[in-house]
Specification:
This is F-box protein AT5G49610-like beta-propeller domain-containing protein. This protein is mostly beta strands and 90 residues long. It is built from no helices and four strands. It has a domain of 55 residues.
Amino acid sequence: MPQDGDFLGVASVGDNAEFVFLDYVRYGVVLCVHLRSRVVEKVYEQAPYHHGFFRMGLSHIHVSPFMMIWPPVFPALKRDTIKSNDPAVL
């Protein structure tokens, strides 16, 4: 349960500040906050170390946000580039 004085580090900020990743060191989790909708999602949780405690020095992780189209569109395979005679292979 969050308490007063807990430390939240800014791990990364998305394009146009639409979202931000926060590193919650005390519990070993990374949270994604969508700023427009004010929705918070837990996107990463560090595995417990010994007896349920987290390694405080190792909880800082590198986050590299990127944008992509969804659903992804893949180029169609050209049939003449495949060297197989098997009709089951496209």
